[in-house]
Design goal:
Number of strands: 0
Shape: flat
Radius of gyration: 23 Å
Distance between the termini: 59 Å
Oligomer: single chain
Structural class: mainly alpha
Length: about 130
């Protein structure tokens, strides 16, 4: 499989870097939406009318300043990109091997694998008695 660099910062356990990553992704998505809109020769006003969103909402979305998921989806629908949105998150129901393991039943909840849980601390009752 080829090594593809999507110019996304590495996510680590540092909350600040996760925020930077989210901000970076919002900016990248906004820039791509703006380029798609322009490639289709649409003004923000035209796209706003088609989506039911305001021009200001589209400007914020294109600038990576955040907008609602509803606005984002409406823009993708107006740009005929809904299939790309669905492809982003594969359908978890289509997993034949897991279905065989679960004997046709669907998973209803998640739980850690045995041995994966760690104690909250090394201290236990009776440890302080000597």
């Amino acid at each position: 499989m080829p090594n593809i660099n999507y110019n996304v910062p590495d996510m680590s356990t540092n909350p600040d870097s996760i925020i930077e990553t989210v901000s970076h992704l919002e900016t990248q998505l906004g820039e791509r939406l703006a380029r798609l809109r322009l490639s289709r020769n649409l003004t923000r006003a035209q796209l706003a009318k088609e989506t039911g969103a305001s021009s200001r909402t589209l400007a914020r979305l294109e600038a990576g300043e955040g907008a609602s998921l509803d606005s984002f989806i409406r823009v993708l629908l107006a740009l005929n990109m809904e299939s790309n949105l669905l492809a982003m998150l594969p359908d978890p129901a289509v997993r034949p091997i897991e279905r065989v393991k679960l004997q046709g039943r669907e998973r209803q909840r998640a739980r850690p694998m045995q041995g994966e849980t760690k104690p909250a601390s090394e201290w236990a009752w009776g440890d302080d008695e000597e």
